[in-house]
Amino acid sequence: MSNELLWLVLMVANFTSILIFYRYFGKTGLFIWTALATIIANIQVLKTVELFGFVATLGNIVYGTTFLVTDILSENYGKKEARKAVLVGFLSLITMTIMMQIALLFKPDASDFSQDALVTIFSFMPRIVIASLAAYWLSQLHDIWAFHLWKKRLPQTKYLWIRNNLSTMISQFIDSFVFCFIAFWGVYELNIFWSILWTTYFFKWIVAAADTPFLYVAKFLYDKGKINELVKNEA
């Protein structure tokens, strides 16, 4: 199976997973997904692949889904709940980094076969996490702010796609720019670096556009009372 087809399959799998988490666990499920997505994305981003003739990093899809999550929360629950999801992702990354750095300090047994692989992945993780935290915090807060800005100007449900895309696509640029400069400047040759930056944004832009139908599905499920909230809102 080609990388391009796998990429499309992975994108659909991510969006479908979000709807499943949301349908059966409500906004709690979206918080859980945010924690999973931020951790998975920061591991996948270490792998570079060729997609549609360009060099790109993995992790773009699963990380891009965190913007769909905050847009769902913003639309259905408000700005406060969306910001909670950002904080969940932020703390999840910090926690993972601390735990894995401590794990690397343990002296492996002679029977161990994973230490070298773990060092390869997680010894680079602090720089990735610093880059991700800065990019994630700035871009997500902008996304929430911009979404509600457009919601005030275009409150009707039929304009949901405009609110989603205008807020997310600009936020994705902020994210890609900040992340790549902190994480990869000086790591790759300049031609590879610029290719990663622009293709990262391009693929995130595609993800942002592709998530729109799933946002409408989430809105439909919420409006029809089909969401199983684990924690009921107090009246």
Automatic annotation (TrEMBL):
InterPro entries, per the entry: YhhQ
**Which Pfam families did the record assign?**
Vut_1
What GO molecular-function term can you cite, just one? transmembrane transporter activity
Superkingdom classification of source: Bacteria
Specify the protein's topology with respect to the membrane: Multi-pass membrane protein
Q: What GO CC terms are in its UniProt record?
A: plasma membrane
Q: Which UniProt keywords apply?
A: Cell inner membrane, Cell membrane, Membrane, Transmembrane, Transmembrane helix, Transport
Query: Membrane-spanning residues where?
Result: 6-25, 30-46, 52-73, 85-106, 118-139, 160-186, 192-217
The subcellular localization recorded is: Cell inner membrane
Q: What is its main location?
A: membrane
The record's function comment reads: Involved in the import of queuosine (Q) precursors, required for Q precursor salvage.
Q: Which family does it belong to?
A: Belongs to the vitamin uptake transporter (VUT/ECF) (TC 2.A.88) family. Q precursor transporter subfamily.
Q: Matching NCBIfam families, A to Z?
A: queuosine precursor transporter
PANTHER family of this UniProt entry? QUEUOSINE PRECURSOR TRANSPORTER-RELATED
- The protein, known as: Probable queuosine precursor transporter
Q: Could you read off the lineage of the organism from its UniProt record?
A: Bacteria, Thermotogati, Thermotogota, Thermotogae, Thermotogales
